[in-house]
């Protein structure tokens, strides 16, 4: 019998790899290697005053912070650990490749979502793949916009985040002995018939949902304000922890980088094994930087900026932060101090990372848990907005409010869902978002080149 994981493994294998990496390379070269050529311009634009102005909406800087808040999440820790266990050190090289081409892909998303913004009744704007399709490709492609929006409602439900954060809380603060004697677990179990561990996962999920609700019920402006404060703090603190690990294991760092490049092109097991490693890296990267998935376009479409190339340059910086910088920090910490020898069937991604930090830093597990909570919660804040915008496209603004409550409820559900099923659902819906998005970006890439070449839409325009 075919299950959800079998379907996800097929769609997220060669098809998704060729689409995201192959399509990303096409956009990379057709745009004149924009992610390398205009990287200094992107940094300069982000620092300019115009990128900080929001008016009645959010600013370009807040849009980027909110996108990074979504992508710098559980995938940067648990996802990297899973990639290392399943694909070895070589998978990290392919995550770097995905970051490079993902920057070009997100540039196209930022340009097109600004070019084809939807004006709402209250005067603010909305964007995303669905509006790009409707306005850029025309009515005959409306079915593709609907496909993306439906997948977006479910693909942004934070399946992996809620599941892995709950796993981390259980692994850090609970033992089988404490669970069997916990009065809360026993009380819930007496009513539901659940095991103590399942009961406590439910409690953890309810607590997570309550924290998320405090932020997302305040709307996009509250989400953006929290993200603008939270992202620099959590990335900076994570950098300090990993820097300590690197300094205390400095003699081993060259060997770690050598293993990444060596295993990325290791042909000892044949071309099939090499392709498998590349696919694992690209598949995990798709869950990390979201390039080509379409979520970034939704957030940047809510920006007050109306200059396509400027917004594209700001959007381009996202993958360099999440897949390029934060994932590299995680990989170094795990390869220096962790154990990646576990079988794929038994992998619990976050436990691998927690073990690495715990063995390298006194109290490292608790410190990493604090960072993990920030990473996971920040992702949930932004993802709730993505799903809400997809629901608003399909059902209207008023009915979209119910989606936010549905999103909060599912955090509790996914907290008790088995990891394997959670990963399968997450990968499948992401793929169903990526196919319409990448097809649209490829078809409309000439419009992006027109914006780049136009005299009034240069890098600083």
Describe the structure in your own words:
The structure is a single chain. The chain has 461 residues and is mainly α. The protein has helices at residues 4-11, 14-30, 34-37, 39-47, 60-71, 78-87, 90-115, 129-137, 142-155, 159-173, 176-180, 183-192, 196-216, 219-248, 253-264, 271-289, 295-300, 308-337, 349-360, 364-395, 397-415, 419-443, 445-453, and strands spanning 118-119, 125-126. Strands 1-2 form a two-stranded antiparallel sheet. The radius of gyration is 21 Å and the shape is globular. The relative contact order is 0.23. Mean pLDDT is 79; it is low at 267-274 and 455-461.
Primary descriptors:
461 residues, mainly alpha, 77% helix, 23 helices, single chain
In short:
The protein has 461 residues and is mainly alpha-helical.
Which descriptor suits the 3D outline? Answer: globular
Strand order of the largest sheet: 1-2
Distance between the termini: 55 Å
How many DSSP E strands? 2
Number of helices: 23
Average pLDDT rating? 79
Please trace the helix and strand order, writing H or E for each element: HHHHHHHEEHHHHHHHHHHHHHHHH
Main beta sheet strand tally, sense and closure? 2 strands, antiparallel
List the helices and strands and how they pair.
Blueprint: H1 4-11, H2 14-30, H3 34-37, H4 39-47, H5 60-71, H6 78-87, H7 90-115, E1 118-119, E2 125-126, H8 129-137, H9 142-155, H10 159-173, H11 176-180, H12 183-192, H13 196-216, H14 219-248, H15 253-264, H16 271-289, H17 295-300, H18 308-337, H19 349-360, H20 364-395, H21 397-415, H22 419-443, H23 445-453
Antiparallel strand pairs: 1-2
